[in-house]
């Protein structure tokens, strides 16, 4: 079951400049950064009540965020719903005809399991499902 808006992700081509904007100009608190090898991203997190903003930047200049930046430039990338049972939600949504970018969930930031719905089946919005690790 989907239980929260876990985060909104913004693709950035200059991670340090974007961190400075969100921290110094917007006044959000940088909670940390993490390199997610499985997703080939460098990420920075800014918590807000009930959710957080996540900056995503290509790790070593490669991976899906690099391809996204090349095609569309920086900007809003995806929103992520938190689920309390990712396997059940994937099955339920597959049953409704939704397509996913991978067959099964894979490791995300903070020990989570994540999977993405194909934007062609969600009205053009890249949607991530995430179940937090214990
Ligand atoms: Co995400």
Structural Rg: 15 Å
Beta strand count: 8
**Structure classification:** alpha+beta
Q: If you consult CATH, what is the topology? A: 2,3-Dihydroxybiphenyl 1,2-Dioxygenase, domain 1
Helix content: 10-25%
What name goes with the CATH superfamily?
2,3-Dihydroxybiphenyl 1,2-Dioxygenase, domain 1
**Which consecutive residue ranges, at least 5 long each, have pLDDT under 50?**
none
Task: Give the CA-CA distance, first to last residue.
Answer: 17 Å
How confident is the prediction overall: mean pLDDT? 95
Q: What letter string, H or E per element, gives the SSE order? A: EHEEEHEHEEE
Helical stretch tally: 3
Strand content: 35-45%
Strand order of the largest sheet: 2-3-4-1-5-8-7-6
Biggest sheet details: 8 strands, mixed
Please tell me about this protein's structure.
The chain is of the alpha+beta class and 134 residues long. It has one domain (2-131): 2,3-Dihydroxybiphenyl 1,2-Dioxygenase, domain 1, CATH 3.10.180. It has helices at residues 15-25, 64-72, 86-95; strands at 2-11, 32-36, 41-48, 51-58, 75-83, 106-107, 113-117, 127-131. The chain has an eight-stranded mixed beta sheet with strand order 2-3-4-1-5-8-7-6. The chain is globular, with a radius of gyration of 15 Å. Residues 7, 9, 54, 78, 80, 128 line the site of cobalt (II) ion. Cobalt (II) ion binds next to strand 1 and strand 5.
Give a quick rundown of the structure.
The protein is α+β, with helices and mostly antiparallel strands.
Looking at this protein, list some descriptive labels.
binds cobalt (II) ion, 8-stranded mixed sheet, alpha+beta, globular, 3 helices, 134 residues, 2,3-Dihydroxybiphenyl 1,2-Dioxygenase, domain 1
């Amino acid at each position: 079951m989907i239980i929260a808006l876990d985060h909104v992700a913004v693709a950035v081509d200059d991670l340090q400049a974007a961190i400075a904007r969100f921290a110094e100009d917007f006044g959000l608190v940088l909670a940390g950064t993490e390199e997610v090898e499985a997703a080939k991203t460098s990420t920075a997190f800014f918590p807000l009540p009930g959710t957080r903003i996540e900056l995503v930047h290509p790790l070593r200049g490669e991976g899906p965020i690099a391809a996204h930046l090349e095609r569309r430039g920086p900007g809003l990338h995806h929103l992520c719903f938190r689920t309390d049972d990712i396997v059940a939600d994937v099955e339920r949504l597959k049953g409704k005809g939704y397509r996913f970018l991978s067959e099964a969930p894979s490791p995300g930031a903070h020990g989570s399991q994540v999977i993405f719905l194909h934007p062609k089946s969600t009205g053009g919005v890249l949607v991530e499902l995430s179940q937090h690790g214990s």
